[in-house]
Structures are given as structure tokens and as C-alpha cells.
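[worker-b] picked up task from shared queue
[worker-b] task type: protein-ligand structure
[worker-b] ligand name resolved to zinc ion; SMILES cross-checked against name lookup, match
[worker-b] sequence length check passed
[worker-b] input payload:
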Amino acid sequence: MRKIWFLPLSVVILFSNGLFAQGGKHTDKFEQLDYELADPNEYRAASGSPGHKYWQNQADYKISIELNDADQSIKGSETITYTNNSPDVLNYLWLQLDQNMRGKESHTYSTATSSIKHETHAYFLNKMLDPDFDGGFKIGKVTDEKGKDLPYTINQTMMSVDMPKDLNPGESFTFKVEWSYNINDRMAIGGRSGYEYFEEDDNYLYTIAQFYPRMCVYSDYGGWQNKQFLGSGEFTLPFGSFDVSITVPSDHVVAATGKLSNTDEVLTKEQIKRFKKAEKSDEPVIIVSQSEAEKAEKSRATDTKTWIFKADSVRDFAFASSRKFIWDAMGVDLNGRTVMAMSYYPKEGNPLWEEYSTRVVAHTLKTYSKYTFDYPYHKAISVHAAQIGMEYPMICFNFGRPDKDGTVPDRVKYGMIMVVIHEVGHNFFPMIVNSDERQWTWMDEGLDSFLQYLTEVEWAANNPKEKDYPFRGGPPKNIVPYMSMDKELISPIMTNSEQVQNLGPNAYSKPATALNILRETVMGKELFDKAFKEYSQRWMFKHPTPSDFFRTMEDASGVDLDWFWRGWFYGVDHVDISLSQIRKFQMSTDEAPKDAPEAPAAVTPEDDFNKFYVSGISDAQKARVEEKPYFYELTLENIGGLVMPVILEFTYKDGSKEIKRIPAEIWRKNAEKVVKVFPTDKEVASIKLDPFEETADTDVTNNAWPSKELPSKFELYKEKGNSAGGDE
Ligand SMILES: [Zn+2]
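[worker-b] inference finished, payload out:
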């Protein structure tokens, strides 16, 4: 017969008050993100996938530009066809005039703060003086298709254009803009786009982007994205097609987004032959050699050539041009389709670039494709550009210059490999999974930095020479210096990039580390990879928001991650869990003595066992206790505030070890302190919390029993932070 327990009502209340269930300290760390996330609707489903009425507008460009190498300026004209796929009537259009950031009246200059130090570098003096470079767009004409003037208004880096009549849902409007601007000296005043001047041979190397008035995104979640461009927040762009004619000195070599469509007019027969060889090669093939480039840089063409590139389903267009370029390429097989990995670099990049750049591009395409979708474009280019890392569709600009005598310090080599992976990786986020960079930097930088780490891990694993590869982002303990900073210096990841202090760790390393922890420690690789791939494929060639990412990761995995997003993405807490008390017990079935003192904590594993008294024990329970007669009661405290899984390593007195993994939900009723009992069959010699340093615990001195000063405490703080530096 079953025994039925009848408890007095007062005991039931005690149970329900949580007295027996520890704590009753209510916190909201596990509350669902109902208020933080955007409401789901017919455009964005509650599952995180595009809704059944999802739409996005489109911008198709026909652009013609001239690059003037004599005065380093650009003159251009464009015809934009804008298609309104939204359900809304639009009565004006917004365009981005990014170069106006370099106009003399720019808010970038007027809102920049500065201070004076006793001694300072000339670079900082420039930040105090009024700008002397006039780099803003000069807008010539804005007309309709037939050349009739259209009214327009310029507000700093944004321009609205009035249409003769409202643009209804489903309609397109075609208009033209003419402009010019002076190209900035990237090495002197910085910039994602610009030129570098090489004094020794009196040549320029141009890496050009944001060079044309670009359509803003009009979206279901934010209307027009016309938040001013101040310099940090990157870009938000609609998809469309590009047909771009670039006129440059005839001795320049041009690399650009899109397919070169007049090959015979701009390449020599020999170059075309070499390119065909490269298509079938799994090693880089030289198309323009160093000696050919060195010869070209000694003379000056007086005539010009026009290079024509065409691209579909891209959100932007960028190019590089110089007579200094060496060019190599190889074919990359992606499930039977050949994608070209290519590099353009001046002799100053060698010997590093010819050895690594194109190979790293190829490795990146393969690895990222494995975690997301097959890279859909026909090529990916890495261009050598000192000091910066910057991404555009199919093309990116990357640093990594050897010393003048050709020696390549490890710092330069690994910096270059890292930045090429990172910038080529941006083809996936945000060039294809097209998030709003101006609003949420982490959605491209964080996801990209996360995959960058996995790609670096594979690079090192595939190359026996690289066993000491210096990983920066990724390993959880590398984020500890940032996570333990003063809270005033940390912003939630969900903060807009213009307001963030320490943008590198905030938008790059912290989200990348968080995703790495999510994959390794919280969800497991299989569930994570499935969900991450689902997100990538759902939002490929679309515009996702953070809510779409958070929801999809849960939707595809069946793991409630609201606590994780809340803690890591919306909060500034850090991880510091302490193993604050251990008590050792053995069971007794004697009658419990009255008024016995509270059992003391064990300071060392040699301390005596306390007794605890159990009444009403069954034979089955007794047998189980005989199997595991040692009871260790652990008190864990959450000092940092960020809830995390608890990973414990028990080392027994016979030298054997056991790992226990407990999900973060252990904290769901009391996020500050939990107590849990572990019965064991052997006596415990020591216990270690987070033994593999996988949770970014900022203070590991409170992670062990018996407690000891760990040498790693000092090592941990000695290690440099992992700010992303100059790469974007
Ligand atoms: Zn980046």
C-alpha cells in the first residue's frame, strides 16, 4: 500500500514560501525578454523568421565615375532606380552622403571632444584645429530620368529628394545625381576610404568606398534609417544591382565588387590566360607579377581606360585602383562551384602577401560557408591597405605590411591573417545577412568575430607550422580584463555604436566570446551550429534585427536563452561565481540529537565529516546511500551577477576526476546564492569551479576548495585585452 503524507497547512505554506527550497530571493534574470524585443508581426514572425508578408525595398544603380590621379578627386554620375516594395506610400527618398563627414562643417568635427596634454603627437593636434581638408560631396545636379531638376534637401550626411508624385506600393522611381569630391589622405587623416601616397615612387594607391550617394534603407522596423553618419556607426544599405564604369589612368589595375564585363578592353591577353589558369588552380597564380608592377609604377600613362563591373544582389560597391598592384588569384571549390579568391597588393606587401593573402581568403570562404551557407558570389578579394581593415561586398581592404627590409614580424603576419579572415568574413555578415550596422554594430562585428575565431582555429589546426597561433578573441578568459572594468566604462552590447566607450571589446570581442560560450558551454556545438545556420539561411539577402537573431537561436534549438541574452547583451554584469562553502556529511539513522550546533564548514578535505540524521529511510534508499556514503554540500555565490552554468571538477582522493555540468537554470529561483548536495562514492580531495576557464569568470581565486592562491590569477590580469584595434 502506498503511504500518503498529509502535511499540516502551515508546512505547505513554508514549502511554498521557499524556506525548504532555499532563498526566495526573486530576481528577474530569467524573465522572458517580452518588453525588450520588438513585437512580432506579419513582417517578422515570433519564431524569428521573416514573416509571411516580409518585404524589402530595392535600389539599382548605374554609375559612371572618373578617378583623377593628378588631384586625387572623384567625379561621378549615377542613375538610381528605387523600388518601393513596402505597403506604405513614400513621398520622398533619403540618400546617404557619407563623404560629408569630411565636409568642413561636419558634426563629426564639431562634436569630437579633445584635451591638451603637456606633450602630444601631431595627429592629436589635427583633432583640435579646424579641419583644413574639404572632403564633402559637391552635389551638382539631382534630376529625374529626363533631366528635369528635382528638389532636394541636404542635412549633414543625409539628403532627401522630392519626387514629382508619391511613390505607391509596388512602384519604382528613377532619378539621377551628379557629384564630385576630394579623396582623403587616409594615412594622414584616417578613413575607411581614401588614398595612400608612396613617396619613393611617387604613386597613389586608392581604396575607394562610400564614393557615391547611396540609398538609405526604408524598413518595416524603423522607417527610413537616416541616423546621421558621425564616423563610428557603419552602414545600412538596401540590396540591388550595380553597373559601374570606372575610368582611371590606363596603367592602373582595378579591383572591384562585381563581375568585370569588358575583360578584353582592360586586360592583356597574357593576363586573361593567367586568370584562366588561376580558375583551375588550388594554389595562387600570379596574374600581374611584382616585376610587372614595379615596371608600371615607374612610368605614367597619359590616357585612360574604363573598367566596367556588374553585380546583382549586393548592398554596396567598392573598388581599389593603382599602377602599383600585383594581382594573384586561385579557384575555390564550393560544392562543385568555383569561386575566385584574389589579392591585390603593392610590392610593399611582399613577401607576406603573396604567401598568405589569397590562401587565407580561400580558407575563410570554405570555413564560413560550412557554418552558414555556400558563399553565393563569384569572387572575394583582399586588397592591401596599410593600417585599416574594412569590408565591402566581394572586396575588402586589409593591413599587414612587412618591415622595409622585407622581414615579417609575427605580429604583422598574424595581424594580417586575422584581418583578412575578419574582413572576408564580413561578406557573410553584414553584406549578405544584411543587418543594420548603424544601429547594432554587434550584429555584424560580433557574429563575424565569432566565426573569425572558429576559422582561425581551423587555420591553425590545418597548418602544422601554426601550433602557436596567437588567438585573441574567442577564448573566454581573454574577455576578462574588459568584463572586470569599472561599470561606467562598459555599455550593454545592445548600445548604439556612437555612444559606446571601448567599441572593440563591446561590439567585437564580448559578443564573439558570448557566442563562443553559448556554443561550447550552454547549448553544445550541435544545437548551436544548427540554430546559427538556421539564422544565417533565414536572413540571407534580407534585413534581420536583434529580435530575429535571439528568437531564431531559441526557435531552432529548443533552448530558452532569454536569461543569456538578458545577461550578456542587455546587461553589464560580469561572471564571478564563487565556491564559497563546503560542508561534508555522512548519514546517520540514529535519532537526531536535540539542540545540536550547526554543522561547520570544511576548510580542508581532511576535516571531519559532520553527521546528518535521516528518519523513515527505506531499504532502497539505504542501499543507495551505501553506494555513495559521502555527502558534499556546496554553497555557490554569484558575485558578478551574470548567471552562468556551473561546471565542477571533483578530484577524489584516489586521484580520479569527475566533471559535473549544471545548466544556468540552477540560479532561476535565487540568482545570488545556491546550495546543492553531491553524494559521492569516494572521498573528495579537491573541487574546482570552471576548471577549463570556459565561463569568463573574472576572479578565479574563489573557485577552488581547498582555497588556494592560483598563479593564474596574476597571469590572467597580465594578459592584454582583446580590443579589435583598427579593423572594422
Ligand atoms: Zn568587422
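[worker-b] attaching auto-annotations
[worker-b] The chain is about 25% helix and 25% strand.
[worker-b] releasing lock
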